[in-house]
Write the structure tokens for this entry.
Amino acid sequence: MSDGPLPAAPATSAAGTLSLVARRVVAALGSYALAITLLLVLLVLTFFGTLEQAHMSLLDVQVKYFESWFVIHDIGFLSIPLPGATPVLTLLAVNLVVGGVVRMRKRYETAGILVAHLGILLLLAGSYVEWLLSDKGQMTLMEGQSSDEFASYHDWEIVVRERKDGGAATEFVLPARRLMDLEPEDTARFASARLPFDVVVSRWHRNVEPSRAGGADAVDGWRFDPRKPEKEAERNLPGALVGLAGKGGGSVRARTLLWGAHGLPWVHEEDGRRFEVELRKVRWTLPFRVTLDRFVKEDHPGIGMARRFSSYVTRTEDGVDAASHITMNAPLRHHGYTLYQSGWGPEGAAPGTPLFSTFSVVRNPSDQVPKYACYVIALGLFVHFVVFKFVRYIARESRRRAAAGSAA
Amino acid sequence: MTRPPALRRPATVAALVLVLVAGLASPLLAGRAAADGPAAPAPSGAGAGPWSDEVLDLAARLPVQDGGRVKPLDTFATYTLLGIAHKRSAKDAAGEKLTPTAWLLDVVFRPSVAETHPCFLVENDEVLDAVGLAHEGKKKRDLYSYAALRPAAAKLRELALVYMKKDAKGLTPVQHGVVDLYRGTTTFERLSHLVDFGRAELDVSASPALKAVFDGKERVRVADVLARAPSLSRVLPRGDPHGGGAGPVASDPGVASLLARLRELAEASNAVAMIPPPGPVSEQETWFTPGEALQAVTEGITLPPEIQALMLGLAGMGGSVGDRAAFVAHLRDVAATAERMTRTRGEYEKIPLEVSLNRLDPFHRGAGLYILAFLLVAAGWLVRNRWVRGAAWTVLLAALVLQVAGIWMRCILRERPPISTLYETVLFISALGVAACAVAELFDRRGIALTLAPVLGALGLMLANSYESLKGEDTMPQLVAVLDTNYWLTLHVTCIAIGYTGGLVAAALAHVTVLGRTFGLRAGDEAFYRSAGKMTYGMLAFGLLFSVVGTILGGIWANDSWGRFWGWDPKENGALMICLAQLAILHGRLGGYLKTFGIAMATIAQGTIVAFSWWHVNHLGIGLHAYGFTQGVITTLTIFYVVEALVLAAGFSYLFRRGSGASASTTS
Amino acid sequence: MTVRFPLFRAGAFALLLTTAGCGGSEVTEIEDVRERGHAGVPAPRSTLDQRMRGEMPGDPHGADPHGAMGGAASSGVAYTWSTPAGWEPLPAAPMRAAGWKVTAAPGTECTFSTLPASGGGFVANVNRWRKQMSLEPTDEAAVAALPTKGTLLGRPARWVELTGTYVGMGGGATVEGAKLVGLVAELPQATAFLKLTGPAASVDAEVTRFLELAASIAPGSGAAAATRAEPPAPAAPFQWTAPAGWTQGPARSMRVATFVPTGAPSSEVAVSILKGTAGGVRANLDRWRGQMGAAPLTDAEFEALPRAKVLGGTAVFLAVEGAYAGMSGGAGAAGSMLLGMALPRPGDMVFVKMTGPAAEVRGEQDRFRAFCESFRE
């Protein structure tokens, strides 16, 4: 990396000026100054994002500070504008590539640094892939229950389920991304060729509480009162007004309020077809079924604190059963999905209450990338600091002492 | 260097060191002598006077199950006392010092004496105002005896029960104090009733059937009941031995009242589980309290012979406190039986080691030694003498060895790597910091690192000790399920702690540069500052290596445990902030923005970030209502931040002075 | 503004989003259509009122639509009870541990449920019932003034009695002149609810049986030791076949099971397990003999006792007649009989004991033996 002022080349032609500008831009992108600035901005951002967690849910902090382009952090009356982690991390990756890999002088003394930089790039790339492609949720089973679906922690979707014979159904899932970006005053219309109606969603609120009401606003004597987001984002209960309208812009012929806390779907029948409309946490389907055979919780003696808990499950795929044991730090990995033992409940259950087991379910193609990145970074830093810096320092010192000794 | 002409001074120093080391070893030797050797005859005194060494030794080793693990009574006593008095020792009314075990023995076996021991720490006398207790002539923060608190017992209970129903975060410090004092007195009361069953006399005169069982005696003791349990079971009502539960009602009023009294006594003696189940651990892990055993007797269950022996022994101890010889005889029985039963279950092996650890008390002694080492180092500045320097080294290494031994013993006791709790991070980081300084001193013998080493050691151990006494809880707790993995505890936690150590030692070394330059010390000695700078840089690089690897390992652990690599939660963010700060400094150095002095300044700032993520992130969002332990942490951190800010301000003033001087160069 | 998805992700699809996401009048095509073979049971029709209040329509098919995802705490069989005469159990349903209907009185139903202690509070739950009866919510003081009547799961229970128009019933139908009686008991970590609803006349007629049912509800065999204060019934580590005519009684602390034979109503059979050796087989048999006023066994007598292979171990049987000392304190009830079985196993000891009037117990000897021998893992 060279950081000094570039020699003022005489701009003889437009092309020359352009190349000069390009060189300056590249130099700036790869500069130490940029690296330090970005590291410090990220440091401040992390600091504020940490403090903010005393007042805001972790999810909201992530969205506000670490997945955004721009942040305004308030301290009392003072509002501090900062770039969000998205541009900072992106620029940092560019800076790392330009300054820390491409333009870095490659000598054997800097080999360790180069390796460490590559490791960090690998880590960033892995995290980016994770962001882009992973699904994370949970599955809760009581003993004897089975499921092939897992649900998101905080994202919601609306599903229209058409019932068929023999327990089968067709589910039309409204895209969560579109729903969750709605503002309360927005109206969104969803259609499918296979549905006899369009689904119209309005008055979407992220967290609501229903109340009895009259007047034009009310639906069947109820309305939603917005609430501020909960400190724990998974406790938010959204609500929306959902109408079924004639296809191609027709008017609404049936409508109801859907609430995240509803235990039952809204049942709508039309032309002998039975539809269930439900607002639920986003669900993904696993390519296999999981049955919880047995859940075991062991407490430390005499104190009500779990020492370990684990689940004995059966994984069924194409009619073939396979037994597995999922416990803390020992997940079940299959077909790109990983099931982790994450919890149990109900919390503070009375003796004799049947317990349920909760698994975190993750599909993450870059699952193992951080591990390899960690090896690479550790190797690079070790080579640089221990092999080059420290060993050389010792060698120099002993030479100096020897020289001093002989001089005396 | 020339050898001093006279040997007198070095000899004195050497003698001092010898005395010191012998002093350290003596408690171990004394402990062993008391354990193995024949017991000294107990000083007889009808219930008064101090406990004999034999009693204290036997009692200290009694196994109990508490907090989910089997530990010696000594440990239980220590943390019970710490929870009440926030000290590791108590005093009796006459001001004589009591070990925790001696205190506990008083509470259990001589409650009327224990009542006069001032062992309840009241942090703020407004707590006493709140419960309507006069406290003239006492300090704002002072110790009170149970007897002194008794007049306010009703009010204390009334208030505490109200406060305990509220959210703890909303309570004022005084309200917290009321709750704590109530908890303390309750603990004291429960313990003081532990062997009531041994002291009680039971009236069986109303029932001829009962009198027949007890050979015509009208007043009997629980020991008699236990001894005659088989014949007694014939007169027990509706004797379904395995039913019990609801407790059938006896038609014989004498039997009914005996049963009622026994159940009452059983209820009162549940303070500590000290009766091992007769079978192996795999069958039943949870120990019984004496009350549970007594309850079983009232239900007509025949106690297994070992439990019967333990109960008889405990009852005997309770009933014979006026007769020391009998007391000791019962205690010997109890100790022998309990040890045999616990050993059979495979739960005894570590008891002696833990008693030794308590006796060695390495972290308190170590703190003292570090302070002594610092004084010797300081003396070395005044008197340039290799013997003084040698003594400083000796004492420093003795303290370090003691500290490492303590950590090692804890590892063996817990079957865990050195760090699994916040308390243990302090022990580990300060030991490693001292060791790192000692190694640095070997490379660069300018006394810089040697001066810092005892300071770090003493600060670390004092921090650990105040943590322990503020918390007043066993520092070897059971871990929650997710931490039950020695692999990750070793890998991630140790790495992070080493990273913290590097960052903190670097920050400490940076003070030498900043303060030295600012106050013009050793102004001409450029080599000195070059050394200090190099060491700062070296420690920072060392810290960075482990911080970065440790932080990523934390993510990998999280990914392996619940499928999420990074979640921006406070603890993760804290680790990341350290990495970022250290990376920024090293890049600043490479880019030429920071020279020696600048690196030192930045490293000090980085030190506050280490402190923030080590301690502060655990207490975020807790502001004005902090109380007790948390308040201590926040106050300490605030002082630390302010002091470092002052140091940095001083550093800036130096930069400003230098900048406004003739030379505008930023090199130093 | 609510930005719900990582903008990093959004950035990658920036163009896509702008085209798909702008304009309220645009129609979004539903692309995610899933064919599901196991979609559970169809949900019952419900009114918005019922959904908002979290009530289930009375439709017995109303299974939990969330299936696996719900994890209702109350849906396991954690309790035992004896169904009153003339009542019949209802199929399992969410939000309740058990349900019954009165056979002769249509629309009169009883439900038993537990909620975690944090799940609403006493006042909120009473108000939930009031809502179901179309009554205005009441305040804390009024709820605090509710009387106590009997016990539920061993705890004193508060008695709630409401009359009004019941709206919590199947398909949104309402019942005028309905009555609700309920018992609420606070357990250490949960609240238990038992309620009976229906037309006022039939509810009044069933109150006695309702209270009988309340008294019979006990923690089931799933209970595990958790607190020192209340050792609950130990879990049965083996199975058995109860002889004809034996009815299982309520669970009791420290017992695995209790039976009352129909033919011997004054007698009782208790199954219990003690950890460890419990003093040995012979000492326990002698203790039983002692309770019957009999002398300890001689070596020869002990050797002569009948034995059988049970659960892989050797069970020893004892039959002794005499005066059952426990029954009347000192004197003992003459004409009693005790049947016993002691089975030492590695680690514990299984005891079965039957006591009662000799006339009754004698007739049960074969069944007792058969019962003991029916034990299996």
Remarks:
- The first helix of chain C runs from residue 7 to 12.
- Chain C is about 20% helix and 30% strand.
- Chain C has two domains: 48-59+73-219, 246-373.
